[in-house]
Design goal:
CATH architecture of the largest domain: 3-Layer(aba) Sandwich
Strand content: 5-15%
Distance between the termini: 36 Å
Strand order of the largest sheet: 1-2-3
Radius of gyration: 22 Å
Number of domains: 2
Helix content: 40-55%
Order of helices and strands: EHHEHHEHHHHEHEHHHHH
Shape: globular
CATH superfamily of the largest domain: HUPs
Amino acid sequence: MEQTIERKKRIFSGIQPSGTLTIGNYIGALRHFPELQDAYDCIYCIVDEHAITVRQNAADLRRRCLELAAIYLASGLDPEKCIIYCQSHVSAHAELAWILNCFTYMGELQRMTQFKDKSAKHADNINAGLFTYPVLMAADILLYQADAVPVGADQKQHLEITRDIAQRFNGVYGDVFTVPEPLITKVGGRVMSLQDPTRKMSKSDPEECFISLLDEPDTVRRKIKRAVTDSDGEIRFDPENKPGVSNLLSIMATLSGQSVEDICAEMAGKGYGDLKTRTADVVIASLEPLQSEYKRLIADKQFLLDTLLSGAEKANYIATKTLRKVQKKVGFAPRTLK
């Protein structure tokens, strides 16, 4: 009797090679990558086409693509188990995005929070790419028939419009696209700004607000030492009334594996200086293996480029199958008479 081998569910995830990745990115996404690649068929994309909705220095963007590839690998990703590639190396992303533009409504795009936010930040460059960004993101995901997409709270809206576009297209042409489900990141995945702990830590904020994945130990200590806390001096987890202290406790608990309750009990009677010192120790120890491997990898640019080009070949094979099916459905002329 022939045994049926069940296919692993597929995950698609993309990160922009712009700015500096933070411990928020590490806690919310990167540190889970190794376990995901064993449980799922994983595709990790460096979304450089998305990055140019904001003006980029060309040489810096090229450099950051390789740096992000090194970070992906240093975080534990294995190119033999998953696909790692640059979005711009697979032309099907842009081709499918144009088709999906014709199945996306202006009103949907006008409601997107990120468009409003970025338009406010870059008022001198409100370009069409910024407006249609969610359609390219939908193409990224739907090209690979992804079953799930890891998302944080701030990305749910983009996945929702992807699902809407997929269902709309399927409603006209049949089951062409897999409608992706959100893969919610684990509890403790939200890291707040060191200077404004009511807001999420962001790589686009001033440098003192975030801890970069590649910050040296002295820099980590300086930034955490300057982190905003409060004036009552008690170490307890209370996000509403003590957001700064709670943020440090959450970072420490997530990275150390200890519960917040145990950390608070151990630090009872101690001051915020002790809390910041201990948080810095945990962050530095957690980042050290990744930073060490990153330094080794970034020294071999040819290996990184070869990894990306090999990944692009694999990605292109999958993406082209979906694109050809879509092109046939909408009525584009065939490329062969066979």
